[in-house]
Amino acid sequence: VIIDSHAHLNFPEFRDDLETVLANATTVGVDGMINIGTDIKTSRESVLLAESYPQIFATVGIHPHDAASFSEVEAELRKLAQHPRVIGIGEIGLDYFRNPSPADTQKAAFISQLKMALELGKPVVLHCRDAYDDLLAVVSKFYLPFCKTSPGIIHSFSGDITQANSFVQAGWLLGINNLITYPKNDFVRDAIKDIPLDKLVVETDCPFLPPQSLRGQRCEPAHTLFVIETIAELKNLSVDEVATATTANLQTLFNISWQ
Ligand SMILES: [Zn+2]
């Protein structure tokens, strides 16, 4: 069983053919997905998907892009977060790449959602772009010391070995996607070679980030297989070994199982 641990199947790109997309995934052994919320609307949609499909679980959260809206939607988000099919809070974090909202606004929304996750006892899925140092500082102060379970996933990990080690040593799992199939990302591939398999999970971030061989096309959960194949190659393991281990890591983190 392969699980796409980070999908956005509620996005308009999948409106016309979701059933086909899910069938494509099953065909290549991708039998489960976690659908990730990014704002209040997509969080609602994420819960609906998880209610409709047994193979889909949901997370809810406000992405740094929408940090400014957090206080208005906090009450509803908290309600959604308690839904039995919602297994974590995310994606939340910091994004200094395009500076979608001021760093202070991002940090405030991020910290509030980390506290919500602690209260509810659900792990977090973190988004981080050009902000690894600040992100580590925030979670070290406001989250990790109070976390009684595994902290969660660093989604779309694209750092180097030093950054990978800092997260792994703090208990995080690294979410690896098709960024590792892109030629320029040698430093990420080098990092993955050295990080133990029990610290990795796989994802697509679909409809974004298709594998190198399908650049320009829509990404879908079936493309998780390219990630697994690349990790297997880098680590000299079989596709089965990587699939089994990464799925087990997810099941342990969220305490759920896919049939
Ligand atoms: Zn995402």
What does this 3D model show about the protein?
With 259 residues, the chain is of the alpha/beta class. It contains nine helices and eight strands. It has helices spanning 18-27, 40-52, 70-81, 103-120, 132-142, 161-169, 186-194, 224-235, 239-254; strands at residues 2-7, 30-36, 56-60, 86-95, 124-129, 152-154, 173-176, 200-202. Strands 1-2-3-4-5-6-7-8 form an eight-stranded parallel beta sheet. It is globular. The N and C termini lie close together (8 Å). The model has no long low-confidence stretch (mean pLDDT 97). The structure holds zinc ion.
Q: Averaged pLDDT, please?
A: 97
Radius of gyration: 17 Å
Bound molecules: zinc ion
**Low-confidence parts lasting 5 or more residues at pLDDT below 50?**
none
- Spatial order of the strands forming the largest sheet: 1-2-3-4-5-6-7-8
Shape: globular
**Major beta sheet, specifics?**
8 strands, parallel
Number of helices: 9
How many beta strands in the DSSP annotation?
Answer: 8
Query: Quaternary arrangement of the chains shown?
Result: single chain
Cα separation of the termini: 8 Å
Task: Report the β-strand fraction as a percent range.
Answer: 15-25%
Element string (H = helix, E = strand): EHEHEHEHEHEHEHEHH
